[in-house]
Amino acid sequence: MSNEIDPAVLAFTGSRTRALTLAVLANAEEPFSGYRVAKIAGLTPSKVYRELLRASKAGLIRRDVSGNGYLIADPDVQTFLRRRLRIRWDDEWDKARVGWSDETPRLLASGLTAIRRRLRDNPNYLRPRGWKPPASAQSLAGELRRSPEKDAGIRRAGQRTSRRDDWTR
């Protein structure tokens, strides 16, 4: 996020923290909690909650009917802030990018393909070095293993068995 704030907004709000807090709320399409406002604005939650309390007492913002978040109370103030300060966060930025709906699934698929390939080559790929299941998990895993005779019957039926080398089918 850019650190430049319109001087008119600074004169209107009186502080950078207040300007950013109100700008996030003005650009929001739904009520935001103080914590979410702080994350989007890049401010500490304590500063944001202090500004929300001040703005609420002044009548600039109000709590949502459900009490889940804050909204700008006056539509004129919201319009002014939207015109002067545009704050965008990740979800909105991704949607505004050209071709985002085609690009994201392709990237996810290529990442999953690479992970599957690594898991096929090394079943312990996602486990940290030296990792060993606890004794309780080892005993439970022993109870869940099928006998070789049962696996042979399942294989004859054309089904996948509990053996890892049969999972690639």
List the helices and strands and how they pair.
Blueprint: H1 7-13, H2 16-27, H3 34-41, H4 45-58, E1 61-63, E2 70-72, H5 75-84, H6 90-96, H7 100-121, H8 135-144, H9 148-156
Antiparallel strand pairs: 1-2
Helix pairs in contact: 2-3, 2-4, 2-5, 3-4
Question: Can you describe this structure?
Answer:
59% of the residues lie in helices and 4% in strands. It is built from nine helices and two strands; from the N terminus they run ααααββααααα. It has a domain at 7-91: Winged helix-like DNA-binding domain superfamily/Winged helix DNA-binding domain (Arc Repressor Mutant, subunit A), CATH 1.10.10. It has helices at 7-13, 16-27, 34-41, 45-58, 75-84, 90-96, 100-121, 135-144, 148-156; strands at 61-63, 70-72. Helix 2 (16-27) crosses helix 4 (45-58) and helix 2 (16-27) packs across helix 5 (75-84). 17% of the residues are buried. Strand 1 (61-63) and strand 2 (70-72) form a beta hairpin. It is mainly α and 169 residues long. It has a two-stranded antiparallel sheet with strand order 1-2.
CATH superfamily of the domain at 7-91: Winged helix-like DNA-binding domain superfamily/Winged helix DNA-binding domain
Report on the biggest sheet.
Answer: 2 strands, antiparallel
* Number of helical stretches of at least 4 residues: 9
How many distinct beta strands?
A: 2
Question: How are helices and strands ordered from N to C?
Answer: HHHHEEHHHHH
**Any low-confidence stretches, pLDDT <50, length ≥5?**
none
- Give the N-to-C terminal Cα separation: 49 Å
